[in-house]
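Collaboration report, partner site 2.

Our partner group contributed sequences for two proteins of shared interest, and the home lab folded both. The records are reproduced in the order in which they were received, starting with the first partner submission.
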Amino acid sequence: MNAKTFAAVTGLALAAGVGGSALYDTVRGPQSPATSWSESNGRLVADHPALVTSTDFSAAAEQAVHAVVHVKTSVEQGYTFNPFQDFFFGFGQSPQMQPRIVQGSGSGVIISPDGYIVTNNHVIDKAKEVKVVLNSNKEYSAKVVGVDPTTDLAVLKIEGENLPTLAFANSDEVRLGEWVLAVGNPFNLNSTVTAGIISAKGRSINIIDNQSAIEAFIQTDAAVNPGNSGGALINTRGDLIGINTAISTRTGSYEGYSFAVPANIVRKVVDDLTKYGVVQRAYLGVNIADISSELAKELSISETQGVYISDVTEGGAASDAGIKKGDILIQAGGKAVKKMSELLEVIGSRRPGDKMTVVILRDGKEKVFNVTLRNRQGNTDVLKKEDVASLQSLGASFEPLSPSDKARFGLRSGVKVTDAGNGKLAEAGVPTGFILVKLNNRLVASADDVAQILGELGPGDGVLLQGYRPNGRAEVFAFAL
């Protein structure tokens, strides 16, 4: 089944006619009373009546429609000219090209009374103008506070007071079969509410086109369509458990399954964007793979669940904690891990510097490790927006040289290109694994050094990279920003 984001389906959610901790004072989870069971006519019956979930969704729906907004965008897509210009303005004049403006539409969720709104990145991507319309028909101009393509989330801000909001639920406590409501603006039909159940958790559908993508979607069968992007997935109490992001479809419309970013990831990303302007991504420092039956047979292991650690970054968080290549990770942060997407969800809700307990299987025995997560530069510092922007301009990821790489190449310092990405480095032919020694004739020892040098350059300035290919051959690359 071909899964597409709403953006991929229609161009921009529905195109052509398509701060701070104070935001999170209320976090709710499912009510989980102590439960006892008794036997009646050979069947187990719950003694606690609260376990029976009400199917009256009216109170939750009434609350949610006021906090879910209609996001309208204007996007420039190419240029057009008037074929009748010669007739009106005389022959021989050059046609005047005009930008073609495409109107986009999506949804968003108000998460603070003073006007912070979370939506999908693909809803507002490349927008020249963003407007927000409330259920009361009040319209506001919106400012883009920040975006995170790796989770397809974005934060907007409007100037308002005492706005209706939704509270965040603890999405880790969402259960299969639980009733949920999807609230949004499909096909420009304002304030539409549909119902369904949670049909899967931790679902990865390879939909986000980013090398650092986090996909651990909540899957539901609540009907959503283009225009629902960025809208709310709520429980029967009206709490936000996810942001509706994608559908699985062959036609571009709903065909049975939809996917939402879990609230715990949303909450962390929004907090980072409002505080720092950029997401503080945490890294464990491992290469991982799901354990298929073929992989288990190849590796002669009996486990079929968990995450196989195929490599460990020297000097990374996992390596320093004692985790090794070949270990099988089965628990992280107190949560059972059966597949890669579940591990990415756990890591994605944390920041560099956070400590986390990891349980692994080694030689059939469980071992517990205490890990301190790090950022992409290999430390626990808070990354600045300008540093991240500088690195993103290259479209690549870097890490400090390991002791073995230093010994192999006879170097005292340098950085390794861990992923050449699809930006300027890749365009210039720089391979993944390239050892960068000098950038614009200046020695580099960390990704911070790379970001600092790039931050001093402007559009059109030249970039000179000197170093070694993975096979040890010296190489120089040059290009302009």
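Second partner submission, folded after the first:
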Amino acid sequence: MKQPKKIFMRIVLFTEMMAFGYFYLFGSNGISMLHHQIDVVVGLEKNITQLKNEVTQLEEEIYKWETDDFYKEKIAREQLQMARKGDELFYIGT
């Protein structure tokens, strides 16, 4: 009589261990989800670093615009294709 009860208890214990293992590894809060969340955090940290670098560059450019007249002239000549009065312009056709 004790033998079937022991077998039944072992089956229940084994089933519980399998269920625990499955949820521990693949559940909504399991190890695989944890690794996925770590990858997301690393990606976001890289994005934050990149955006901080962009902000620093833009702040430097703003500072140059406010303080450096040569920089303003350089941008006007290169990007806006402006020239001073009396400058000679050469157009190279393609």
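Feedback sent to the partner group on the second submission included the following. Residues 31-67 form the longest helix (37 residues). The two ends are 99 Å apart (CA to CA).
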